[in-house]
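This follows on from our talk about sequence and fold. Can you supply me with one protein entry, sequence and fold together? Could you add the entry underneath, on a fresh line?
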Amino acid sequence: MSEKGFDMIATGKGFSVFTATAFIIGEVAGGGILSLPSATAGAGWSGLAMILYCATCAGISGMCLAKSWLILEERYPEYRQGLTRKPFSTIGAFVSVIMNITRIGASTVFVILSAGLAVALTSSFIHLTECQWIPIVVAVFLVPFWLGSPADFWPVAYLAMLSTVIGSILLITKIIMELSKNGPSTDYHIDGIKSYSAAFGTILFAFGGASAFPNFQNDMKEKTKFPIAVVFGFIGLILLYLPTAGLGYGTFGHSVKSSILKNLETGTFITVINSFFFIHCLTVVIIILNPVYLDMEELLRIPKQFNWKRCVFRTALLALILLIAETFPSFGEIVDLIGGSTVAIMAFVLPPIFYIKLCRDNSGDWPERSVSIYHYIVFGVIVLSGFVGGIASTYATISNWTPLSSACYLSHNSGNSTK
């Protein structure tokens, strides 16, 4: 594939490749790493190969998305004037809707996970349930959500990445300690094809951050180097994901919970681990939800500068997340559903299609690009995997789902814990 013309893209103020890598790891990891041992239990030991496969496919898709945006800037100069706030208008309404649903769902997952971690950290002196912690967690996000684009809060990305990396290393250490103490599990059975399919959705969710990549790339000083950040970011994710999934499944087997933190023995060590993941959840939601704000505010013609309209709109969207979290406070089910449906579309199906379409479009006076047979085969496998696997995972999740059965605002569920 010809890369001629990428040097035409103007560079300016923005963050570095390392910061972009921090955004990728900080945004993608966290809730995903906690649910991967459960996903591995659903797929058996082949789940580790599935994690590596999904990482490779999602990384290639992320590269496609990054190069697609560079092509758009090369062909349409209006998109390279400064740090434009909205790199989604050329994609279409359908993609914007799917992206927004994905990120609202992912934000809800982290709100629920934050509430569960808050209970674990404060249960000895604050006697609140997870359902009662959810509105408190949402309230904490209020003021930070009034900020602008990722460039306005780049330190948050470093905090999200550091808390994930440190928390993950401590988590792996704790699992090894429990493995040494209690020995490996003896129960590694798989429940069936539905369990295997749902596991695919969970793993997809763990790599579902591609829809925010254009925002991160758009705030870089040198946008052409974003593919480097994608490579570094996914290498980091694999180094975190595989040990956690393998050791977690090896230690707890089929009994591993949707969040592996709930399998670990209580004590000072697990409190420290919970604290790091709690910090991660609080920071990553700001990163995840920001592209939704930028997209919808452009549609509603809300000014770019800080203003009361932005505050009102973002507060209203936060209230929607609160309602969803209180209605479906099950961490595992939302992860499976979002991963198998919208994440599969955004992270696997659409990016290669966009890239092929842009490379084949030679209608203007643009540098000529072509896609080799090899790349067609690779992209075809990725798209087919996302399409078929996504349908199977979504069906497996919905067939076992009982909506409203655990809603917090129903009196008999007011003390529920997330599953």
About this structure: The chain has one domain: 6-413. Residues 268-299 form the longest helix (32 residues). Confidence is low (pLDDT under 50) at residues 1-12, 82-89.
